[in-house]
Amino acid sequence: MDVVTLGETMLAFSPVQDGPLDTVHGFEKKLAGAESNVAIALSRLGYRTAWVSRLGKDPFGRWIYKTLRGEGVDVSGVTFDPIRPTGLYIKERLGGKQTRIYYYRSGSAASAMDQGLVDLPAFSEAAILFVTGITPALGSSCKKAVFAALDKAREQGMKVVFDPNYRGKLWSRKEAAPVFRQIASRSHLVLPGLAEGELMTGATDPESVAENLRSLGARQVVVKLGPRGAYYQTEQKDGYVPGFQVSQEVDEVGAGDAFAAGCLSGLLDGLDPDSAVKRACALGALAVTVKGDYESLPDREELHCFLQGETG
Ligand code: KDG
C-alpha cells in the first residue's frame, strides 16, 4: 500500500442551480470527504491507496462504498454501522464561486471512528499516512483515532502528511490550533493554506509560516496560495511555484485535496520539491474545472498532457 488515510465521507447534495437554498428545488447526489478525495485522486494516478472509515448501513453508505471501490481505492477497512447514519452535506451556490455548506453529520457513523481502527492491516502496510484536521474535529473518539494513527505511523516508520483543512463549522480556531500544532510536529509534510498557517503559527507570510512549522518538527511545508500557486520550504531549499490558468473555474471545493494528492505523489515518486509542487498546482487547477470535488481529476496520462500544456 502506498497511502492510507482515515476520515469521514458524506452524501453531498449539490444544487443544480445557483441561489439561496430556500428557492432551489433540484439537487445532484455527490460524495464529499477530503480524505476520500485524496484517495481517489491518488488511485487515478496509479497509486495503491486505502481509505479507512465508517459508514451508515444505509443506501448512501453503500453507494459511497461502491464508488470508492469503483475508483480502485482499498475499502477493506470500512465498516458499516447499523444504527448511526451516513453523514450528510448540503451545498449552497450563491453565484460565482461563492458557496456555503450545511452539515448534518453529528452522530454520524464516521463520528464514532475510534482508535481500534489502527489495528487494521492497511495501517501496517502503507508507506504514508495522510490525515486532515477535519477528523479530530468530529469528536473525542475520532481525535483519539488520529493520534493512535500517528503513533502507529511512528512505530512503522511511515511518513505522515497533514492537511489542516480547518472547518469553522466544526470547531473554533482556539480549539483547533493546539491540535493542528501537535499533528504538524509529528508530520513529515504539512500543507496549510495561508489562513491555516496563520491559525497555527500566528505568522501572516508564507516564509514565516513554513519556518515556524518546521521549528515544531515538520520536515517540509508547502503553503497553498490558491490560483497564485504555492510556497515550499525544506531544510535544503525553498521557493515559489506559480499556479496554472484554466479556461473555466466552476467549483473550487476539492482543489486543496487535489493539491494534497499532487504533493503525496511527488513524495512517492521521489520528485524534487519544485516538480512535486508543480504537479500539485496542476491537480488543484484541474479540480476547479468541474462541479464536484474529484470528478475532473486526471489519470497519469491526462496529467502529463496538462503539464505539457496540451489541455486546460
Ligand atoms: O475538501 C473538500 C471537503 O471539504 C468536502 O468534500 C467535505 O470533507 C469535507 C468536510 O468535512 O468539509
Write the layout of secondary structure elements.
Layout: E1 3-6, E2 10-15, E3 27-32, H1 34-44, E4 49-56, H2 59-70, E5 78-81, E6 88-93, E7 99-104, H3 121-125, E8 128-132, H4 140-156, E9 159-163, H5 173-185, E10 189-190, H6 194-201, H7 206-216, E11 220-224, E12 229-233, E13 238-242, H8 255-269, H9 273-287, H10 300-307
Parallel strand pairs: 1-4, 1-8, 2-6, 4-5, 8-9, 9-10, 10-11
Antiparallel strand pairs: 2-3, 6-7, 11-12, 12-13
Helix pairs in contact: 1-8, 5-7, 6-7, 8-9
Residues 32-34, 37, 89, 134, 167, 253-254, 256-257, 293 line the site of 2-keto-3-deoxygluconate (KDG).
Describe, in short, the structure shown.
With 312 residues, this protein is α/β, with parallel strands linked by helices. The chain has helices at residues 34-44, 59-70, 121-125, 140-156, 173-185, 194-201, 206-216, 255-269, 273-287, 300-307; strands spanning 3-6, 10-15, 27-32, 49-56, 78-81, 88-93, 99-104, 128-132, 159-163, 189-190, 220-224, 229-233, 238-242. It is globular and about 50 Å long.
